[in-house]
Amino acid sequence: MNTITKHFLKELQQQRVIRQNEIKNLKNAKNSLWLNVMIYIIITLVEYWLSIIGNSQALRADAFNNLSGVISTSILIVGLFEATNIDDDDFVGKPLSKKYGRSRDALQLSRFRLETIFTLITSFVIVLIALQIIFQSGISLFHLSGKGSPNLMSAVGAAIATLMMLFVWYLNRYNGKKFNSTSLLAAAKDSLGDVITSLGTMVTVLLSYFLKLPWIDSVVSIVIGLFILWSGLKIFQECTLNLADYVDPKLEHKIEETVNKVNGVHKVLELRSRYNGNIFIVDMFILVDPNKTATEIYNLDEKIEGKLRKEFNVFDTTITIVPDSNTPDLELLAQESIK
């Protein structure tokens, strides 16, 4: 077995290990999200029940906010299940041919993107629930006659929700960083928002109770709805950019500068990068000396790929070689020197 073949097999093995680690991380993220669902269900039921007893529009809005967490997290679990279901004989309901089509390893890259797609779907759910809260709270604000202030039972419900959501936020943030999971980090942002809204709800209920101002309850429920709407739109933006193959231009510029400094590279003509879920992929065209041998070009490719993998965590780099027409031909120079 020659050196180039060994390098090629080693590279395939490295990519396979990265894919397996990503699958493992996604499965761990899925297991963590199941705990999220159970806690969200408990909080939603407790808050909704106490909002009726406590006569609080803000607590009811917070309950629906946590209901959105139940729905969005459940959708994410379905997405992660599809993203890690490597033994399935279909792809989102479409049959797969074992004889034709992409290999299992190549197809897995498409499965990773399902995490982003299902996260995008959750953003729609969050936005719809936010609009419902804003609409109902707005109607309530204009029908305050005869409406009493919330009682302390509502404040108790909001306090319980705040403490439980603090635990969920810490869990999602810790596991999101540990497993490098976009879905868990998105869930952490959402749960941090839930902590703020639950805490704000508790303060609102106390103010409304002691100051006897029922309109505060309705106003804060509208604010909560706007906050949920902002969170949903933010998640929508991030997922859309990911699916549209948008990558931070500053990051791409750093990658280009790094490659330009590699000995043997004359210039990076074009660089494109994209994400498949959490997998980062780079394609580029580079100018090189046209007199280089195939082995020298292969070694240069390996050097660039290794550098990008180490410094920028690039999963795969596809390099297209373009001969630099401005480079003097060595044979012509030799003939000129003989003359």
From TrEMBL:
Cellular compartments per GO CC: membrane
Limits of the Cation efflux protein transmembrane domain: 113-243
Keyword Transmembrane helix: yes
Annotated transmembrane regions: 33-51, 63-81, 117-139, 151-171, 192-209, 215-233
Subcellular location(s) of the protein: Membrane
Membrane topology: Multi-pass membrane protein
All residue ranges annotated as the Cation efflux protein cytoplasmic domain in the record: 248-321
Keyword match Transmembrane helix: yes
Keywords carried by this UniProt record: Membrane, Transmembrane, Transmembrane helix, Transport
GO molecular-function terms, A-Z: monoatomic cation transmembrane transporter activity
Primary localization: membrane
Similarity remark: Belongs to the cation diffusion facilitator (CDF) transporter (TC 2.A.4) family.
PANTHER family: MANGANESE EFFLUX SYSTEM PROTEIN MNES (PTHR43840:SF50), MITOCHONDRIAL METAL TRANSPORTER 1-RELATED (PTHR43840)
Name of this chain's protein: Cobalt-zinc-cadmium resistance protein
Organism whose genome encodes this protein: Companilactobacillus tucceti DSM 20183
